[in-house]
Each structure stands twice: as C-alpha cells, then as structure tokens.
C-alpha cells in the first residue's frame, strides 16, 4: 500500500511537471511517471461518456519516451511556447495504489511575435504514489480537456 | 472566537469550492457556507464605491439553496462549461468571526465545440471559520469581479 | 548564509506581491525587495540569448521607488486594471544568497467597461532570503515574459 502523498508534495509535483514541459525539457517528462503508469489526454465529453479512446494514450513509461522521440522528430516548424498555469489541487481519496486528486489547469499558447491566446483548460485526474526512492510520481494522470475542439495535432504533452 | 484557519486549509477549501462549481455539483455548493453567511457578487467599481447592491446577494445558506433551485429550473439551453483557475491566497487578518483572506481567480468559459474565452477575473474576499464539526466554511465570500461588464444573467455561482 | 525559505512562505510571498500590484498599492511594492536587489523584466528570447538589457532594470530598492514615482507622475489616462494569477512555485536550489525558485504567472488586463484579455504570461525567477526581521524578501526577481511583443510602455510592475 502506497503512503499518502501530502498536500504540499502534490502541489510541488504539479509545479515541477508543468515546468518540465514549459521549459521544453521533454526528455525528462516520462520520469514523472512510474514504470507502469497510465497517461491519457481526453475531452470532458468523452470522459463523461466513458469512452476509453483519447487523443493520447500511453500505459508505460516507455510509451511516453516514444512519444517524446516522435515529437522531436516531427520537428515542429513554427516555434510556439506554452505556459501552464495550475490551480490548486483537491485530494479526493487515499487508495491502495496512491493518492487520488484533481488539479485544474490552463495552458496559454504564445506564438512568436504574436498574440498570447488561451489554448486549453481542463483538469488533471491523478493517482500519485512514491517510487522506490520515496519520490512522488504519477501512477495515473488523465488529462481531461474542457473543450471538444482541442487540436488533435497536439504538439506537446499537457 | 473562531480558531485560525491555516494557510493549507484555506487553499484546500478554495480548491474544493471551485471544483464543486466546475463539476456542476451545485446542490453541494451551499454546504461550503455556514448557516448564517454572506455571499455576494459585485464589481470592483461598485465595491470601491461602497455600494451594497450586487449582481447576486444572499445572507443565509437557505438563500443559496434557493438560488441553485432557480438556476436548475432556468434550464439553460446552450451547454457551457466553466473552469475556475485560482491563484494563491493572502491571509489579511485573524478576526473574532474568522480568518480574513483574499484569493484572485480567473474563470474561463468553454462553449460546446467552440472557443475557450476568458470569462471573468476578480478576487474573493473571504471570512472563513470552522463549523461545529471543525470543517472550514465560509462566513463571508464577497466575489469582486474586475470588469464592470460582467453579464447580469450570470448562469453559475462564482 | 540565508536560511531556507519554506514552500508555504514562498507561496504566501508571491500572493502578497501580486496583491500589492493589483490593488494599486505601488508605493508598498519596493518593500518586497531587499535594499540591494535585482529586479528585471525581460523576454524569454532575450533571456535565452543572455542579453542583460531588459524592458525594466533596477538594482536597488531606491530605483524601484523611483520607478513608482515615475509611474504615478505619468498619470496614465485610460484606467485599466490588472489581475495576476499565479501558478505554484518550484524550488530549484538553496544557495548562500537565498532560495532559488520559479513561479509561472498570467496577467489579465481589464479595460474599463471593456473586454478582459490575456495580457502577458511568463515566469518569475527568484532568489528569496529573510530580511533583518526574518521576513521573506526578494534578493532577485527576474520577470521573463513569454511573448516578445510585450508592450514596452508597460504601465505596471509585473
């Protein structure tokens, strides 16, 4: 049984995760997950209907690493920046597999010399547990986007 | 005299409150307040001028429940989603009636298959105290919206 | 050697700083810094290229006070409001001069009776240490704006 992950540790984990993406340190992103994990990006509509398919689906850290490799090779032309703004989390349950929580997020997209726009909002539904070294990691991170018109060519992890 | 509500408890209360609204669990929303309470939505301009009238005014938990009933019966046609993103709170004072704090917020509006827009920003001015069971609750929550052009047909609590 | 500034103290300092600006209490803003300090606003592009020049540069509390005086005398015509929404911080290092951290931010601009727009996003790169009274203060606050098209006539501190 996983130890409880405290509120402050949860906030700090969320912050470090978002920083990793916004700093374009994608190669370090899979390390926020346990080896056996679930990472999924879906929409609120699909999530409510219980649809398993998402925009992105990975059930191991290796699949996350593959995704980073693919993103690097895709070699996105127009440079964009993203900025995650995280709201504060709510702890929903302590389960055997870890601490279940939700955290709302907003991501702004900044186009080079262009306008800053509200790209996407949503919530993370997470299960967090310590890894062997005691570091808090994601057992599960399901990213539920509020809008159904989120770009399927999503160039970054959320 | 109310006990002090700690910083972490305040953050968690804010998070749970926003989640309740964004998850459309409006029937549970009045429970975040004490029986005798003040809930008001106003604008920064009105607030500065000391005007008591707001866009929304309730001074008991019963009035909040009535408001939820009215919102449900209004049966809003076009389905919209809202997403609260909360900034971190500042504790301003410890008073006999509770802990006084301010928390900035941003609410995004997501129209079905449409664009995500910045709906409203503002700050909560709160007095928080424990209820009989020791749970932190709002004695007062005054919602001060930054813009004066906030829609008076506001379909959700803020 | 400065004492470590804890995570909660860092969150509270950020919140109080943003509140000072959004409440238009600019005269109190320099007090968030130590006497010898660095405050700079720059862009992500300039920051990456190691360019020292920024949109704003001050290396003492006195320079910050001068800036406030200049802003007050500029007597900006059209009244605007700003709202800082802060994400949660990441502590990066404990150095001799203080605690190094990063905090993402978003600022919305609210024009009187007009629209609310996403004004700027970015991150604070901070060094925080206690002043003689033990109060956490900024030794350094470097404001890195994501967009390169941030208005050089920036009317407020960020």
Report on the architecture of this protein.
- The structure is a homotrimer of 158-residue chains.
- The mean pLDDT of chain A is 90.
- In chain A, strands 1, 2, 3, 4, 5, 6 and 7 form a seven-stranded mixed beta sheet that branches.
- Chain A has a single domain (7-145), classed as Nuclear Transport Factor 2, Chain: A (Roll), CATH 3.10.450.
- Chain A starts with 6 loop residues before the first helix and ends in a 13-residue tail after the last strand.
- Chain A is built from three helices and seven strands; from the N terminus they run H-E-H-E-H-E-E-E-E-E.
- By secondary structure, chain A is of the alpha+beta class.
- Chains in contact: A-B, A-C, B-C.
- Chains A and B meet through strand 5 and strand 6 of A and helix 1, strand 3, strand 5 and strand 6 of B.
Greatest interface and its residue counts?
A: A-B, 24 and 25 residues
Which CATH first-tier class of chain A would you pick?
Alpha Beta
Radius of gyration of chain A: 15 Å
Helix content of chain A: 10-25%
Multimeric state of these chains? Answer: homotrimer
Uncertain segments of chain A: none
**What's the number of extended β-strand segments of chain A?**
7
Q: Termini separation of chain A (Å)?
A: 28 Å
What fraction of the residues of chain A are assigned to beta strands by DSSP? 35-45%
Overall mean pLDDT of chain A stands at 90
Q: Please tell me the CATH architecture of chain A by its name.
A: Roll
List keywords for this structure.
7-stranded mixed β-sheet; 22% helix; 7 strands; 158 residues; 3 helices; 43% strand; alpha+beta; homotrimer; globular; Nuclear Transport Factor 2, Chain: A
